[in-house]
Amino acid sequence: MNYWLMKSEPDVFGIDHLASRSGQTEHWDGVRNYQARNMLRDQMRLGDQVFFYHSNCKVPGIVGIAEIVRAGYPDHTAWNPDSKYYDPKSTAEKPIWYMVDVRLVRKLKRTISLEELKQRPELAEMPLVRRGNRLSVMPVSPQEWEAILALE
DNA sequence: GCCAACGTTGGC
DNA sequence: GCCAACGTTGGC
């Protein structure tokens, strides 16, 4: 099993949106970065665990845990001209972009803030805390996963 | 709202 | 293939 961290803006799609979805499950669409795409498409497996991270908000940080319930498949929002994620270069025959389905496992008891994560020496290698990082999907090592959960 | 950092685009 | 211009991300 792998561990991941996925960023989302709470104003757009936050942990409470996921919680209110049918089956507390939703597709993770709109990833339009090749490095992140490769992870969605090639590496995420059923049952992988995900930290749900809120970005671009008052207190950025990890707010919950989700689980991959469907491995990578083509992101159909790329084919919809009305979608803000529309990409005419992607077709059903040759999809460029991929998504996964995630189900909420639980919300954390509290937000583990980015500020707090930055203070932990054992988390210093995470792309998340490194300057200028913009990856919206990133791997988390088992050690980092445990260290973060211990902060809760 | 600002702006640094980064990825992508496109002219050459 | 280089690289300047541009758009986006996301912390602050």
Please name the CATH architecture.
Answer: Roll
Q: Please trace the helix and strand order, writing H or E for each element.
A: EHHEHEEEHEH
Low-confidence stretches: none
How many helices? The count is 5
Mean pLDDT: 95
Q: So what's the CATH class?
A: Alpha Beta
Major sheet summary line: 6 strands, mixed
Task: Compute the CA-based radius of gyration.
Answer: 15 Å
Distance between the termini: 22 Å
Please indicate the count of domains. 1
Helix content: 10-25%
Class by SSE composition? alpha+beta
The neighbouring-strand order within the major sheet is 2-5-4-3-1-6
> What name is given to the CATH topology?
ph1033 like fold
Strand content: 25-35%
Write a structural description:
The chain has helices at residues 10-13, 15-20, 34-42, 114-119, 142-151, and strands spanning 3-8, 25-27, 49-54, 61-74, 98-113, 137-140. It is 23% helix and 32% strand. A hairpin with a 6-residue loop joins strand 3 (49-54) and strand 4. It is built from 5 helices and 6 strands. With 152 residues, it is an alpha+beta fold. It is globular and about 45 Å long. It has a single domain, classed as ph1033 like domains (ph1033 like fold). A 6-stranded mixed sheet has the order 2-5-4-3-1-6. The structure holds a DNA duplex (12 and 12 nucleotides).
